[in-house]
Amino acid sequence: MTQRKDETIFTPRLIKKDDIYGKQGYILNLIKPNVYQFHAKGAGSHVYLIIGEDLNVLIDTGIISKFNSLNYLLTTEVGLKIEDINLVINTHAHFDHISSNAYLHCPIAAHRWAATKIQHTDELITKGKKWGVDLSNLKINIWLEDRNIIDLGNVILKIIETPGHTSGCICIYEPYQQYIFTGDTLFKGAITNIYESGSISEYINSLQILNTLKINCFFPSHGNYVLGEGNVQHEIETSIENAKMELESFVHRLKSKPLKDVKPPPSLYNREEEDL
Ligand SMILES: [Zn+2]
User: How far is the CA of 165 from the centre of ligand 1 (A)?
Assistant: First the structure.
């Protein structure tokens, strides 16, 4: 593998706002040399594309209603076809990250705890049926574990297990350039929701693991990315504190009141709205 230090400071830039597909379209940003973000407007997760010397990798495929926009921007702005994608890595099993998998012709990878849910069409976890998306017959070809390495030639992707939001969540870390794709684990200005199969104490632990890594910038699946080592550290540590407070206040109420009077906070399992 080729080890390469980060290029000089790179300023992300907007490539194109897809206006053809309206709210079903993406905004295409170049966030690193040869790394693109398909920023989801409205519903669905962002999708990331890394163009490596040996492999072109998509991180998540996004919501199915936005696939036409993904394909359009990939073809017209990046100059690649769907057939040019060599590997998909799903950050977890939720429908808004995996539902366009069906349109890809390459191997699909996910953490083994996400793979089990996807391959069993476990609607409780993937939420496909609830949102009108058919996720049956999706296959995961490569079942990932913590510390697996994927070598794209000039880019290394290291899998970091980060359960919490769901059991099969991963972050994907580039150790030489020190950036990370955080899926639904780390956001700017908000902690995640804990869904079925997830756990807030595992979530806190996962954030603490991220806090041991040297990270210059992170790219989440929803909302805005964060640049700068100090800013990243601030977001991780604030998320740890907020998640701890949420857990502690719930545990306190649990201990001080009869069980039937204690409802989990909205981010823990009894959400009024789905926000995957
Ligand atoms: Zn999710």
Answer: 7
pTM for this structure?
0.93
Cα of 194 vs centre of ligand 1, distance in Å, is: 9
pLDDT band at 180 (very low <50, low <70, confident <90, very high): very high
CA distance 119 to 138: 6
Cβ atoms of 47 and 59 closer than 8 Å: yes
Indicate the length of the chain as a whole number. Answer: 276
Q: How far is the CA of 73 from the centre of ligand 1 (A)?
A: 24
For residue 5, report the distance from its CA to the centre of ligand 1, in Å: 32
Cα 256 to averaged position of ligand 1 atoms, centre (Å) = 32
Is 140 strand, coil or helix?
Answer: coil
Q: CA nearest 179: which of 230, 226, 241?
A: 226
3 Cα: distance to centroid of ligand 1 (angstroms): 32
Q: What is the distance between the alpha carbons of residues 214 and 130, in angstroms, rounded to a whole number?
A: 38
Residue 86, both tokens: 């060599």
Q: Give the largest CA-CA distance in the chain.
A: 61
Mean pLDDT, range 78-95, rounded to an integer: 97
Q: Rounded to 5 degrees, what are φ and ψ at 37?
A: -115, 125
Q: Of 128, 113, 97, 96, whose CA–CA distance to 168 is shortest?
A: 113
Q: Which H/E stretch holds residue 124?
A: helix 123-126
Indicate whether 2 pLDDT > 60.
no
The mean-pLDDT minimum among 117-131, 160-174, 198-212 falls in 117-131
